[in-house]
Amino acid sequence: MIEIQCAIALIEGNPELRYAVTNTGTSSVFVLAGKRMPYVLVEDKHITVLHGVHAPDPDIDYYMIEIPSTEEWPAGTTRNFKIPLKDLQLSSHYEYEPSPGNLHGTYRLTVQFGFGDTPIPANETHNWSIEDVLKWQKLASSSETEVIFP
Known about the structure:
- This protein is mostly beta strands.
- It has one domain (2-149).
- The chain has one helix spanning 130-136, and strands at 2-11, 14-23, 29-32, 39-43, 46-51, 70-73, 78-84, 89-92, 95-100, 105-116, 138-141, 145-149.
């Protein structure tokens, strides 16, 4: 239902991730629309650019967890995004300050997009837990793209 096409472009000699996300279904979907998204997560030479939520660390007791609302995307909607990869900033749903990536070498990169069949209205997010959102969320993924950092 959600299709993601991504590529790495060189803009004035600097790599940039460009990706298009399309609702290829026949009905509307509701995409997570947190103001801090996308998040950039790195684990074991793999970068995930995430427009969605990920599970919290079970060893950390979080004071408050943001529950994002959704935006309706009718069938056929396409949105284009770009992220400069030079000086990439890492971020997480549970941390409010991005940190420098300081990445070197070859990484695999995937874009993931969270969506669902029903809305999460802004005036109802207080009724949702992060566990509810994780159960609600479907994740679409792009194919892997190789990125080489100097």
